[in-house]
Amino acid sequence: MIGCTSNDTIEQTISEDDLLGVWNVSELYTEIGTTGAYFDGQSATGAYSGVGSDFDMTALFEENPNNFYTSGSFTFNGTISFLNEQLTTQQVVDSIPSFISPASWSLLDNTITFSNADEAVLSNIFYYSNDTLRLKSSINENILDELNAEQIQQLNSVLNLSIDSLTVNADVYLTLTK
Questions:
Q1: Three-class SS state of 156
Q2: For residue 169, is pLDDT > 50?
């Protein structure tokens, strides 16, 4: 894995032409992840981590109009930790998480803005070469709907309560290669 801090910057300026074309999705993971469970007006916080594997996915940056699409799949393995208990999830993902695909995109000062009907996500380019693009985005998402009934039951038993929502705050790192 590649780690970076908020002070990581690249020296070169990336152009839209640098992004265009088909890229292979080769890595996705989270860092600095926290989760919050909300129930009956109360909350509990915990840790969150996730990592992708078995990548068979491409990403396409198009121009005029600037659209971003993914196709294929990968496996996402997530871990939620509350009160010294861990809940692990594993799911096959058929698009980069819906917060950025499909989307329109724009580039300004080495930051890509992915926008769809629901929201806009800023992704900082922290590494670029002709064949590798590494992005960092921050998410704050409710993931309760992404868990199956067994996982929700396990989480409810760990907290000894029935949760109303489950949010994840994390930095998401995505590596694309040509």
A1: helix
A2: yes
